[in-house]
């Protein structure tokens, strides 16, 4: 039966790929660019504290373990909010939730710049985590509104790649700001950028049907989006809590969520500690470490966009089996991600950057496929719920990564065991994708979705 379904799916995808070349309009790619810009700025708010961490640690007399707690604090509130935020997004839609949250996260970033004392900075990071909680889930759900299934890879890589690209420009930018203006300057700069994005999103984003009515989306592009498998923007699950319980019992949801959580452990360990590793273990200056750390993130960004996004969509459009293509990149990228172990075995900057670049490149090829699977497996109207489950579990792993790494550095005096644990997590993620996730296909709905009203 799967063989017949695969043949039918491949034929439909090939026809969809041909339709893509004649679809009128590119409004959907403007939406993808808007999402990518938001995640880029969103991740500046995560990069800034890792770049400012050494100066902040010295200014407040913190141990590496205490600094790891400060790095992790954002993820506590961020993670706890994921499932409630996902249900809220399914109930009222992405527009208003994102509008309010972007204003709040700008305010929380400014607060970090003006407070003093470890306790107040900790509180500001908790508020930032709560405010930024909708960002990824909202982008995943927006993708399900705006893109046909065969274009989900490239669209997802537009915002997933932005998370990596934030380090390419964010780490050097924040390094210069911290060098010139001190650690508080990093939060003033990223807060200002967040406020500008809040204004841009408020003015520019609307759902497809609203864009169509306003004359900002052509009829042919709207038809191409909807006929290509985009989810109904007004669909709301009839019983969200019953649906959530069913999703929590679903093996496919757990396989995707656990695999993605393991990826996120390694990713966030590098996101928070790579500058400290280069400065502390390889004895680089803040500025030089910031420039060196851009190399792995350039590799990650290109791999995310070109392999996890463009190549996946191109192969599917040419008629290759969608499940096989996505699964191959999902697992193959994680296998290459095992190269991060190289950070534990060398004290030579060039060798360390080479291994970390290879590892991050592999992880980043896998990441947009994993993220796009949220909208691919979610029942109609339940992308927020599936995204909330995945991101909640991911944040448990993300919260652990900087703390575990920080205390290992305190105990051993180096980062070797931090890289070993990250590599083991990647290996566990591979097993989850291979043996728990199964086929990448939509989970059947518990009951038909209702029509709601979304702004």
From TrEMBL:
<keyword id="KW-0812">Transmembrane</keyword>
<dbReference type="GO" id="GO:0005886">
    <property type="term" value="C:plasma membrane"/>
</dbReference>
<dbReference type="InterPro" id="IPR036259">
    <property type="entry name" value="MFS_trans_sf"/>
</dbReference>
<keyword id="KW-0472">Membrane</keyword>
<dbReference type="InterPro" id="IPR000849">
    <property type="entry name" value="Sugar_P_transporter"/>
</dbReference>
<feature type="transmembrane region" description="Helical">
    <location>
        <begin position="185"/>
        <end position="204"/>
    </location>
</feature>
<keyword id="KW-1003">Cell membrane</keyword>
<dbReference type="GO" id="GO:0022857">
    <property type="term" value="F:transmembrane transporter activity"/>
</dbReference>
<feature type="transmembrane region" description="Helical">
    <location>
        <begin position="253"/>
        <end position="274"/>
    </location>
</feature>
<feature type="transmembrane region" description="Helical">
    <location>
        <begin position="294"/>
        <end position="316"/>
    </location>
</feature>
<feature type="transmembrane region" description="Helical">
    <location>
        <begin position="64"/>
        <end position="89"/>
    </location>
</feature>
<feature type="transmembrane region" description="Helical">
    <location>
        <begin position="101"/>
        <end position="124"/>
    </location>
</feature>
<feature type="transmembrane region" description="Helical">
    <location>
        <begin position="351"/>
        <end position="377"/>
    </location>
</feature>
<feature type="domain" description="Major facilitator superfamily (MFS) profile">
    <location>
        <begin position="31"/>
        <end position="441"/>
    </location>
</feature>
<dbReference type="InterPro" id="IPR020846">
    <property type="entry name" value="MFS_dom"/>
</dbReference>
<protein>
    <submittedName>
        <fullName>MFS transporter</fullName>
    </submittedName>
</protein>
<dbReference type="InterPro" id="IPR050382">
    <property type="entry name" value="MFS_Na/Anion_cotransporter"/>
</dbReference>
<feature type="transmembrane region" description="Helical">
    <location>
        <begin position="389"/>
        <end position="409"/>
    </location>
</feature>
<feature type="transmembrane region" description="Helical">
    <location>
        <begin position="328"/>
        <end position="345"/>
    </location>
</feature>
<keyword id="KW-1133">Transmembrane helix</keyword>
<feature type="transmembrane region" description="Helical">
    <location>
        <begin position="27"/>
        <end position="44"/>
    </location>
</feature>
<feature type="transmembrane region" description="Helical">
    <location>
        <begin position="415"/>
        <end position="436"/>
    </location>
</feature>
<dbReference type="InterPro" id="IPR011701">
    <property type="entry name" value="MFS"/>
</dbReference>
<dbReference type="Pfam" id="PF07690">
    <property type="entry name" value="MFS_1"/>
</dbReference>
């Amino acid at each position: 039966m799967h063989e017949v379904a695969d043949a039918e799916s491949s034929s439909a995808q090939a026809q969809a790929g041909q339709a893509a070349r004649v679809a009128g309009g590119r409004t959907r790619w403007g939406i993808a660019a808007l999402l990518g810009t938001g995640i880029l700025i969103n991740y500046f708010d995560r990069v800034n504290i890792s770049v400012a961490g050494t100066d902040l640690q010295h200014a407040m007399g913190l141990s590496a373990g205490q600094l790891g707690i400060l790095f992790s604090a954002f993820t506590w509130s961020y993670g706890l909010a994921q499932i409630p935020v996902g249900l809220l997004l399914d109930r009222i839609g992405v527009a208003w939730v994102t509008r309010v949250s972007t204003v709040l996260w700008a305010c929380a970033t400014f607060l970090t710049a003006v407070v003093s004392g470890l306790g107040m900075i900790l509180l500001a990071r908790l508020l930032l985590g709560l405010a930024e909680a909708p960002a990824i889930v909202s982008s995943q759900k927006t993708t399900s509104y705006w893109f046909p299934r065969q274009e989900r890879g490239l669209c997802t890589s537009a915002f997933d790649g932005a998370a990596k690209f934030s380090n390419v420009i964010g780490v050097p930018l924040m390094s210069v700001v911290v060098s010139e203006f001190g650690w508080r300057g990093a939060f003033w700069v990223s807060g200002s950028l967040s406020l500008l994005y809040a204004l841009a999103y408020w003015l520019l984003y609307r759902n497809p049907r609203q864009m169509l009515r306003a004359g900002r989306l052509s009829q042919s592009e709207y038809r191409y989006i909807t006929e290509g498998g985009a989810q109904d923007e007004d669909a709301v699950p009839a019983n969200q809590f019953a649906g959530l319980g069913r999703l929590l019992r679903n093996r496919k949801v757990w396989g995707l969520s656990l695999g993605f959580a393991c990826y996120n452990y390694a990713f966030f360990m590098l996101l928070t500690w790579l500058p400290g590793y280069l400065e502390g273990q390889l004895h680089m200056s803040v500025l030089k470490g910031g420039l060196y750390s851009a190399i792995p993130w350039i590799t990650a960004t290109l791999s995310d966009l070109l392999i996890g996004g463009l190549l996946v969509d191109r192969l599917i459009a040419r008629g290759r089996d969608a499940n096989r293509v996505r699964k191959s990149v999902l697992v193959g990228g994680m296998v290459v991600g095992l190269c991060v172990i190289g950070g534990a075995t060398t004290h030579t900057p060039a060798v360390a950057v080479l291994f970390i670049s290879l590892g991050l490149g592999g992880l980043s090829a896998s990441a947009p496929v994993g993220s796009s699977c949220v909208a691919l497996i979610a029942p109609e109207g339940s992308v927020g719920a599936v995204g909330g489950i995945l991101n909640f579990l991911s944040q448990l792993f993300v919260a652990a990564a900087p703390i575990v790494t920080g205390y290992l550095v305190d105990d051993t005096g180096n980062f070797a065991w931090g890289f070993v644990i990250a590599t083991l997590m990647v290996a566990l993620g591979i097993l989850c994708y291979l043996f728990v996730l199964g086929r990448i296909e939509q989970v059947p709905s518990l009951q038909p979705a209702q029509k709601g009203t979304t702004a």
